[in-house]
Amino acid sequence: MYCHIRKAMTNTKSIETSSALSVDCAVFGFDGKRLKVLLIKRKYQYDDLLADDPKLPGAMILENETLPEAANRVLEEFTGLGNIYLKQTKIFSNPHRVSEKEMEWICRFHGINTRRVVTVGYYALVKLNQGIINYTTRKGARWVDVDSVRNLIMDHMEILADALAALQAEITHTPVAFELLPKKFTIHQLQSLFEAVVGISIDNRNFRKKILSSGIISPTGEFEKNVSHKPAQFYIFNKTVFHKAMNDKFKLNFINNWTY
Amino acid sequence: MYCHIRKAMTNTKSIETSSALSVDCAVFGFDGKRLKVLLIKRKYQYDDLLADDPKLPGAMILENETLPEAANRVLEEFTGLGNIYLKQTKIFSNPHRVSEKEMEWICRFHGINTRRVVTVGYYALVKLNQGIINYTTRKGARWVDVDSVRNLIMDHMEILADALAALQAEITHTPVAFELLPKKFTIHQLQSLFEAVVGISIDNRNFRKKILSSGIISPTGEFEKNVSHKPAQFYIFNKTVFHKAMNDKFKLNFINNWTY
DNA sequence: ACAAAAGTGTTCCTCTTACACCCATGA
DNA sequence: TCATGGGTGTAAGAGGAACACTTTTGT
Known about the structure:
2 copies of one chain form a homodimer. By secondary structure, chain A is an alpha+beta fold. The first copy, chain A, has helices spanning 67-79, 100-110, 130-138, 156-171, 187-198, 204-214, 239-252, and strands spanning 18-30, 35-41, 54-55, 58-60, 85-92, 117-125, 142-145, 217-223, 233-237. In chain A, a hairpin with a 4-residue loop joins β1 (18-30) and β2.
């Protein structure tokens, strides 16, 4: 039913070929102070590749799933959550991105037989809470400060760096920040998140003015409890206002949204 | 040297599998008035799939090249140009994105044998001129108004729409506009390009003010000749100023570059 | 009382907007 | 002389930047 014809191929150095396709996910979370990323372990030792070597969660793509489905499968496995914000970043297709030894490890671990693995980078955003942390801990995963990540296996450092850059770019133009916060959050939390992700500090009064006048968050009337300072009000994200604002502003007033 | 171990796999419905990987490129050009995209023909008839069916240029990835290399190979084949601006957009990995008949066509045409083709979308930007147009015409390709493209094969309409959306988003934040213009261009050309790509109209005086005060273009002192109106000055893009401006502005003054 | 974070206003200034006419050239 | 696009200035308003103190709560 599919293909039955195979052209006789000369033994050139470059031929059309099949690749194993995988996804690797940089899963970000925010603990109120710092941006965290979820790391797992290699799990299976192979020669001098240690079982403890840290890596990003990932998986091979299955026969009848799309790449985002594969990424969601990985996220569900390690966090227990469905419906996570997920965004594809780059594709890592260098034929030599994986060393021969790593290639052997992959084939052994995944029970496949291939000469090349092309991987697709994703970043995912989760609302961190104690439940998730307990879950990921049981799975042998840990949440690490993004700034302090070192020595991931293969090209996972590069995949992570790319994911972080994509998140930084996106958080200033789309409301992904709210994917990292609880449904109800304080303005202080929101500001800290921006500061942590973009790596800057923002004047509190100006921040409040801008975020409140934009209308994309609404006060709930609820306040923090049992905090040793003046309790902050909780706000919620206002999706409809955001989309309206984008459509009104972005197209009609191009020159205003134009940042050279 | 690579893998020699293959785990016995149970015959589940979803198994890890290999895919053929392809690239498809939306190649954009600007003729001074409208945004154009390069279309080619299917070329080989197969049953009711006609040789004239329009499609985006694309190719299977070869064994020892990366995806951007494959995309560049396609561009060189159809335009004769190297060093074209190239940007990856999305991956199209739906297992059913290609019908069975198209799948047969692919296998036949490419002389491969696979059950699945995952394709990676790219958009490319070229400086249109008569030389290029002659070249692409000899290759059987044509430059079509983006707005009037209809009925591309497989999911190429979707790939094109995605590429266009990516270009629209990018042109307002990075200087890709200059990839679509000759080295020396008039301010009018630049403005028309923005208008064509984003689909808006811009006040000429305000546009000049903003673009000139940004410093990212510099006058050459040369003027149009043989035009039946006041000759316009030619300008060139000023790369260094652009990068300096981005670094100064974007990080330090986040709140200003923030568009909710 | 004190520590810790919440919350609030104003001034200055830059940038955006809206808008209309004369200029240089080729036909 | 006419048609075509090139090129210019200003005033009003909006929004960003910089800046410090009072409030509320738990300990």
